[in-house]
Amino acid sequence: MLTYEKFAKKHFSQLIGYSIVGFKLEKWSDGDIFPVLFMKKANDFIKVTVSCDEEGNQGGHLFIDKLEKE
Question: Could you tell me if 22 and 37 are in contact, meaning their C-beta atoms sit under 8 angstroms apart?
């Protein structure tokens, strides 16, 4: 399997079992606007920011961040 394919399988499989519970558009400091999905699985929450790559250049890549419980 190619290196990116291994990375993508591990990275994106983090989303399995989560449900989208919210959405917003988030304006970053450089003025770019990114779609953000809030997702939940049991008592775990994550924030998924959509970008084209890991550097945050436009839409396409998913940043997946675990959120603390409120």
Answer: yes
